[in-house]
Amino acid sequence: MAEAGEGKRVKRGQGEGSFIKLADGRVRWRVTVTTPAGERRNLSGTARNMTAAREAVRAGREAAQRDTLPPRERVTVEQLVTAYIEHRAPKLKGRTVENYRALLRRNIAPSLGPLKAQGVTPARLRAFYDGLREAGQGDSVRRQVHNLLNAAYTLGLTDGMVTVNPAARARPVYVERGAARVKAFTPEQAAQFYAAARADRWGWPLAFMLATGLRPGEALGLTWADVTMRGSAEAGTLAAVVSVERTRSVSSGRVYEDTPKTERGRRSLTVTGDAARLLLESRAQTEREAGARLRHNGREYQRTGYVFTTRAGTPYRPDNLRRPMTRLCRAAGVPVLTPHKLRHTWASVQAAAGVPVEVLSAELGHAAASFTRDTYRHVFESERASLTYDPLTPAQPQAAAPSERRRVTVRRARLAQAQAGSAEGEAGEVPPSAAPVKKRARA
């Protein structure tokens, strides 16, 4: 007989456990086992399918026979999460480990930490998530807390520390968003901001991010060893090949420097136009400051090799970009955005110009074009201004689509580059790109 609202019960032989197929395809299992000491224990859980549920029952019975069932009242939530973090630490970035520990210390330990992990119910978890919301924690933090708890309980099931995972049946209620917030500059606003940032030494990293679509940590992690300059500004052929090999980030006040998260994140970009000139100016400024051996805030200048540095020669902290970002937004008369939104702006402006999303995804270092489209592509009002269809007006011949115009432009640019290369011989200068987006460097 099926349980109300839960699904169909699957009959099994005595001692083999019971199974209930849920509406979402998962299977809830339960089995009664007896330990060598004669203690009867009821084990239960939820598995992704029938095969996994039967495996869980088998594992539970074997654990009972070996007398390795976990004591129900021994492991606390804090101990469970700590065990998960330590288990995963060798395979995670330093910043990620520190973020997990901060979530445990600030959000989980004060309320759930002392509770016995086995005794936490889905209802208790939902109340915990509601409490975080009432305390002012946003959707992002509560989502991270839930994911951490779910992962810790999942490992706990595997290791026999607990027999149920309440996080699999309880999720935070995310707050409905109010009025849509600005997520990217319009092309006009981007030009205003770029001009303001370009004229300000502290704005150079921000201007470079807007021109290239780099993440803040990627731009601040660049060293001159990652940059190969080509051509010359005087001849109008200046270009730079920039290799993204590391990223700088901050967690709990500590700066971490790691390789990019994914293999796609390690990439090369060809930088042209004013962004390439900005690199030259940054290097010249660094050499002037190093030569003058300036002292800044009581410290002597340090040669660190980073592209964007403070007046002391040290690399920027990523969390120190917000202040100049806010100041420059106000100076330019544009909405105040975060530094990361410059990356959104780059993607949206390039997409509006007709650059295919697959090209943008590769340039941004994303694993999937769908993520680029869903997260970084923001439609401007100007793109929607004249979409009314008038059946009474005869159709007008359409100009070539932006993407087609771009392909023609790129073909012409390549032809010009080939002709210039044959004429210049050993000069090795690169003609300026005519495409609306930087071409990805070929290995």
UniProtKB/TrEMBL annotation:
InterPro entries referenced in this protein's UniProt entry, alphabetically: CB (IPR044068), DNA_brk_join_enz (IPR011010), Integrase-like_cat_sf (IPR013762), Integrase_catalytic (IPR002104), Integrase_recombinase_N (IPR010998), Integrase_SAM-like_N (IPR004107), Tyrosine_recombinase_XerCD (IPR050090)
Protein's recorded name: Site-specific integrase
Keywords: DNA integration, DNA recombination, DNA-binding
Residue stretches making up the Core-binding (CB) domain: 75-157
Pfam families assigned: Phage_int_SAM_3, Phage_integrase
Biased composition (Low complexity): 415-429
Tyr recombinase domain segment(s): 180-390
Native species: Deinococcus sp. VB142
Disordered: annotated span: 389-443
Record-linked PANTHER family: PHAGE INTEGRASE-RELATED, PHAGE-RELATED INTEGRASE
GO terms under biological process: DNA integration; DNA recombination
GO molecular function terms noted in the UniProt entry: DNA binding
Superkingdom, taxonomy of origin: Bacteria
